[in-house]
Amino acid sequence: MGSPLQITVLGSGTSVGVPTIGCHCDVCTSTDPRDNRLRPSILIGYQGRNVLVDTTPDFRAQALRAKIGHIDAILFTHSHADHVMGLDDVRPFNFRQKGRIPIYASADTMNSIQRCFQYVFEDVERQTHVPKLETHIIDGAAFDLFGLEFRPIPILHGSQTIYGFRFDGAAYLTDHSEIPESSMERLRGLDVLFLDALRHKPHPTHSTVERSVKTVERLAPRRAFFTHICHDLPHARTESQLPAHIRLAYDGLEITVGDPQ
To answer: Three-state secondary structure along 195-229?
Structure first.
């Protein structure tokens, strides 16, 4: 690519975020800013373009904090509330950009988005503003966005098959309990790999720290970052127990793909 590809972590937390409402545990009351985790999302920047992965319920706060000036496309991993419910907050980008924003999702995920945001997709005359979107169905095939190839990676979120994405030398796999062997083969030779690592205790629909460490050992990316983290994992202590090339993602983290550092 002609310019570096940069990933900004907009949110690294689990579905309820950290601090968790009503909780007074050590992580939820921590003074370490890395223990404050909004819902999981990243922004991919390259060639002057911004591609967003998921619109969390915290999207407005994330966009303001990251000073996002424009959104050129949105990719959806799946339709759970912590990944889609901030979609209405793309309206200011429509105002500024004076056009529709393309969104990409599997057929099931797109159907769920259209049910949740029925008013957005109704063909009626309006007296108010709604998001202006251009829908594209992902069927598992690779697709090009502004000169960068995105490859959907099927992963299992409990019994549900959802998508992660590989792009350039990076891959982002959020909510997953298992990565099928066929998908593992698509994740070789990475510089940067994001993996779900909810906590140490097993969960039926998410990976654990230990399981994701084993995935990193098998795939051997140069760097790995764990995300979708709950309040069971204090950032500093957990990271101190990980190999040097595996780190916990945190909100606001910026990563340049291919950076030798």
So the answer is: EECCECCCCCCCCEHHHHHHHHHHHCCCEEEEECE
Measured CA to CA, the distance from residue 64 to residue 37 in angstroms comes to: 15
Q: Which long-range contacts (CB under 8 A, 24 or more apart) does 70-73 make?
A: 70/96, 70/97, 71/97, 71/101, 72/101, 72/102, 72/145, 72/146, 73/49, 73/101, 73/102, 73/103, 73/104, 73/145, 73/146
pTM of the full predicted structure?
A: 0.96
Please identify, in words, the CATH class of the domain defined by 5-257. alpha beta
How do the domains of the chain map onto residue ranges? 5-257
In this structure, what are the phi and psi dihedrals at residue 83, rounded to the nearest 5 degrees?
-115, -10
Which H or E element spans position 254? Answer: strand 254-257
Confidence class of residue 126 from pLDDT cuts 50, 70 and 90?
confident
Asked if residues 233 and 201 have their Cβ atoms less than 8 Å apart, the reply is: no
Residue 240, H or E segment = helix 235-240
What is the helix (H) or strand (E) element at residue 237, kind and residue range?
A: helix 235-240
